[in-house]
Design a protein that fits this description.
The termini are close together. The chain is about 85% helix and about 0% strand. The chain is elongated. Helix 1 runs antiparallel to helix 2. It is mainly alpha-helical. The protein contains two helices and no strands.
Length: about 70
C-alpha cells in the first residue's frame, strides 16, 4: 500500500471514528434524556450506532493490517 493510500485510509478511519462517536452520543442522549418516553426510537438509534461502530472497526482493522505490512 502506498503512502498516499495509507494516509487516505487513516483519514477514513478518523472520519468513521468521529461518525461512530456521534452515533454513540445520540444513543447516550436517548437513554439519558428521553427514555422511556421515546422507546420507539431505540431500535433505529441502536442499529445506526452498531453499524457506525462496525464500519469504523473494519476500516481500523484494514489500517492496522496495512501498517503491519
Amino acid at each position: 500500500m502506498s503512502d498516499d493510500e495509507l494516509r487516505e485510509l487513516d483519514r477514513e478511519v478518523k472520519r468513521l471514528k468521529r461518525l461512530a462517536g456521534e452515533q454513540a452520543a445520540r444513543l447516550h442522549d436517548l437513554v439519558e434524556d428521553r427514555l422511556p418516553a421515546a422507546w420507539q426510537e431505540l431500535p433505529d438509534v441502536s442499529q445506526a450506532t452498531l453499524l457506525a461502530c462496525q464500519a469504523w472497526a473494519a476500516a481500523n482493522a484494514r489500517l492496522q493490517a496495512a501498517v503491519k505490512g
